[in-house]
Amino acid sequence: MESNTNLSSDIQLRTESGVEKESKPINATDRLLTRISRNKDLPSFSKCIIEINRNLSSDSKQLSASELSNIILKDYGFATKLLKLVNSAYYSSSHGKITTITRAVVLLGFEKVSMAAASLLLFEHLESKYSVPELKEGAVMAFWSGLIAKDVAKIMDLEEGEEAFICAMLYNLGKQIVLFYLPKEYADISKLVLKKGTSESEASKSVLGISFEELGIAVAEKWNLPDKIVTSMKRLSRDELQSRNGKDNNALQGLSNFSNELCDIINATDESKREASFSALLQNYKKHISISKKELSGVIDASMEKVKRHAGVLSIKIDNSRFLSHLPANGQKRQLDQQRQQQGGDLELDTKKAIAQSLANPEISDMGLSGTEETDRVDAIISGIQDMSAAMIGKYDINDIALIALESMYRGFGFNRAVFFLMHENKKKLAARCGFGRDIEHIVNRFSFEIGGTPCIFDIALAKQKDIIIPDTGAVHIHKLIPQWFRQRFNTPAFIFLPITYEKTCIGAFYADREKPGSPLPEEQYKYLNMLRNQLLLAIKHLI
Hints:
This protein has two domains: 39-170 and 225-360, Hypothetical protein af1432 (Orthogonal Bundle), CATH 1.10.3210; 377-543, GAF domain (Beta-Lactamase). The protein is 55% helix and 9% strand. The chain has helices at residues 28-37, 43-53, 65-73, 76-86, 101-126, 133-155, 161-169, 173-181, 183-196, 200-208, 212-222, 227-232, 238-242, 249-268, 274-284, 293-310, 322-325, 331-343, 349-360, 377-391, 398-413, 457-464, 476-479, 484-489, 526-543, and strands at residues 12-14, 20-22, 417-423, 429-437, 448-450, 468-470, 494-502, 505-514. The protein contains 25 helices and eight strands.
């Protein structure tokens, strides 16, 4: 073999005397995971995935929507991209546009949000090396497979369309990981496949000690990815293909296997020979995939337009893609012809223009959401209020409404920290109920302060039911009014404190701070905080 780095060999350790001795054989999977984990690009990436997906562990019930939202909001740019993804066509729903992470978690649930986060983080991480042709092609093919899985799930009337999209995209995670972190080993695997005709699975076992599939599953488990993703990475055996289709994970596994095999057929088979390959594929998966050949052709024909429209959501570069060039060139034309036949004539001119525009501009997304970084703060607050209003339709939990309001404050105004305090039933204590920002895990559900003791700025605000805006806690006339507990727990120079009062009774308060002295909020934007508070009071009123 040409590689001089066969990873399946035992590791040699050097003793203090300088004499090398052979250690106990180390599992090939563990060895690879160790090598990958030492890569300088990996730690923050994998840590974020593991933290997000910790909710799916055995103690997941202890994790609140506030805690999951706060994990995601630690990375402002990532939170914005996640909102764009959940508002895209992949997560279309009857709930309308979602503008806060909190509402995304409440509506979609922990599992869907964590699956979306995992896929988004992965593709964002790989984006830095899209100059490597194989990595770029792998991303395009994974994305296309995900789109196909989602469309086939819809034809089959399955409810797991979003999950099918994510699972199919991550089906070849192991291969992508090797491409990114172990390029030399990948080159050796490719040589074996090309020169000796070895299967990719056998070649990877020869070089790495395990297959791409096994590595992908090992990495997914190490990152605590949801079980649905892990199960969907497993290749179906011939016997499993002949068994009856199950539910949940089995359905997703079938869709992931099917869409990725379809992708391989298109990538490696001449167009003139594909019809026979498609028929054979449908026959092999007849116990798992119940669609007709005509329906499959329709899905493939529509795929190019969808890739161009939505690839930008995951920052996938599709220009000059070799795989996309293999898609049926006349697929879009057949779609237009079918539409003309259904309508009894030509399409309207504006429809033609819309289709042409979407094909010419791959960044267009039917439900794209621009990030808060690119909009002004007012728009972020207004969007939050809209989310609160939408969440109030039907049954709702007042804690979710308060959390949406708080997130809107935190993201919209860029505070260092934002906290919602709830009044204790004895009316003598305010307790931190939820929050976002720095060290919030040490404050929420762990901190409260007594009311009515030594007079301080907070007692004054609560007694008079007045908002306070403090630009500098060190100012002479303010310093003596700042309580000791504040300096010990928060110790920030500028903050706002807004009591929440219903029928002349304080029921809680909003708090937000900044790390530098100065007005924590421009005077002209103060009214928008009032709007958030009033919307919360309206939600409370509706429940009483």
